Amino acid sequence: MFPLTRLQQYRLQILLLLFAYFLATSSSSFSQSISLLQAVKTNDLKAAKELLDAGADPNIIDADGDPLLLNAALYSSPQLMELLLAKGANPNAKNKDGETALMWSVHDMDKLKLLLKKGADVNAKAKSGNTALLIASVGSDQYKTVKLLMDYGADAMLKNERRENALMRAALFGDTATLVLLAKAGNEIDAVDSTGLTPLLNAIFNVNRTATKWLLQNGANADKVAAFGLTAVTAVVTYNDLPSVTAVLEKAKNINTVDALGISALMWAAYNEHDNPAIIQALIDKGADVNIKTKNGETALSWALKKGNNKTVAILKKAGAQ
Question: Domains plus CATH for the chain?
Fold first, then answer.
């Protein structure tokens, strides 16, 4: 090996010093990041402030791909979130799923207000197409949250990748006030998502009586045929919930519509694991045909006999089932 000249030796020393400095600062920065993440997850405001004052990066991303501010949305107080924002945290930082801190803060009004005041994009979309408003719409007693987002410019007409509007999601667990707010904002009562579900079907499947009743009273089509021939009537009778059945039957006109399998609402009710003669009687009183047959020749009576629903069998026979 050839001996190094003095100039080469000098350059090598400089490179070694720079490399040592890089290792030292990188190690220090990494240690700071770990400590800051821990402070955020334990809501340690004092430790977080000390680390940030010492130069810790408020925009670090954890091993799961979640920015620090999103972690704060889950684990920290609004005060710690405000500190991060004051130190330069990006209010619109996204994780690998395109989600923002605003989306993760719909459970906390104080955090929502803080982020909105600090410039969070109220209409940012995750990869799923969900916005903060679409996320907030799923849940009970969400009126104040939904209204706050709309007051800050949330577009209630945006839909996600499943083509769900906010009202459709609110129908799952929501209250009347939220449904009214979204309907006034232009959300379609009979919107259909990519799976064929409607707001009314969502309300029925979650036994949300309040939403079911409100939707029917405000124009939801009880006879609308969704995917696989499903209607509100065929959906509602599969649940042992007479009030919801009664509400749907009051508006339904096509009581004998069959689904893609040729099964009527009465047949589904007879097949139900719950022997609920009141629901069977309500369907018959509405005009249900007791002798509709599937392609295999099965009827409501044959299904009720298989299930051993004796009271239902008696009602069907009295109504002329053969």
Answer: 34-89 (1.25.40.20), 99-194 (1.25.40.20), 221-322 (1.25.40.20)
